[in-house]
Amino acid sequence: MYKSFPDRDGEPTSNESDVPEAQPGNADNPGEQKRLPWGVKRKAQTGIAAVLVAAAALAGIKGFGGSEAQADAPPPPNVTVSQPLQRAITEWDDYTGRFEASQAVEIRPRISGQLVAVHFKDGDIVRKGQLLFTIDQRPFLAALAESRARAASAQTQLALAHSEYARAARLVSDEAVSQEEVDSLRAAMRSGEAGVAAAQAQVRSRQLDLEFTQVRSPVTGRISDRRVDVGNLVGANDTMLTTVLALDPIYFTFDGSEALYLKGLRDKHKGGGDAQQVQIKLQDEADYSWNGKVDFTDNAIDPKSGTMRGRAVIANPDYFLAPGMFGNMRLTDGGSAQAMLIPDAAVRTDQARKVVFVVAKDGTVSVRPVVPGPLVGGLRSIRSGLKADDRVVIQGLQFAMPGSKVNARTGKIDPPAAFTPASTPVQTPISSQATLAAR
Question: Is the pTM of this model over 0.85?
């Protein structure tokens, strides 16, 4: 009488058989098909779906030939390798310093008097012996005339003494004069000779005083401004009139550490004792454009700073360089050494050491510790750790793992000249103000 209804999972709620009794067909439509209950139909559909999923999985596992498909391994990464360049290089050590005049002279008068003329313009280039100042000559002309008159008087006295001595010498044989008188006349003659010499020395002294009234430049160089104007009295060896600096050649002084001094000393001995070459660039220059050589090192290391003072001499024919200018200097012994060059980016830092990645013939990457040297036109020189036939990774370093396999492609390292930066224009300070130009 009562019929069970399926629960949510499609199962009956009673213990009756899963297959219900057949129901009589419709009398009006005897060919009508019997319908299955809803639970039985749901199970049939679920079974069909499971069979389809299993078939799809099996089709994915099996290939057309009946063998199982395997996932392809990723190809090894591509890196670019190259053998290091071998070049002869010159190594330099860096210093800083300032320019100094090769000669610095303070112009002071050697006599006292009144300044009557100035014969130069402030800041001019003067030559050795060029007239700079004139001091009033009249007192010194008078003193020279007086000394010359005294010299003439001394000459007259000497001539008289000679005459008297000659006369007495002739009478000695006749015993007309005593020997004592002859000796007195001889002494008077020698005293007259000394008087003439003293008078002539006084004349030369007065001539020097007159010459000193014209103050001349002792060196060729650039003169400063005058410190005393015309009409002022100047004191002998006291008043400073101006200064002159000899600038061709000009000196460049620098201080170097004891370690650099010892290195330079040994390099100089290896090079046969030749003068060490230097190159200097100024504060606003990009390239080293001034060349010279070291001509002096001090005789002791400063115990306070632990540095040695050195000096280089630089040609300065157009007087462009001035004392006090700051410069960056590099120094070498003039010799060259063979070195291996690789791109600077190929050198990596591994904690406290520098390494490069090298690829073997079978494509295995290995780490090679190296001792790097200075940069040469954008390439890093390697002092030790590399061989000429090593294949160094220069591109794709992020894919080079020690012990892994890579696909090495041969590249090329451009010569250092290709990495040399072009000369940049001089960096001049920007003007603080500007106005419209007059038409």
Answer: no
